[in-house]
């Protein structure tokens, strides 16, 4: 018998209850990250730096997004 079914006493299962909303609360803490100054910058390359000071015991991918900004 599922959550949406109830036993009607005659050996049959009839839907009588419905779940229309579910509330889920999840505890989540973001990792502590700091962007640092770029180094070795020249017209064709540079090194982008950041520090992950607390990974909360998980594995994270590090990525940088770059491009023109609108003034």
TrEMBL record:
Name by which UniProt lists this protein: Uncharacterized protein
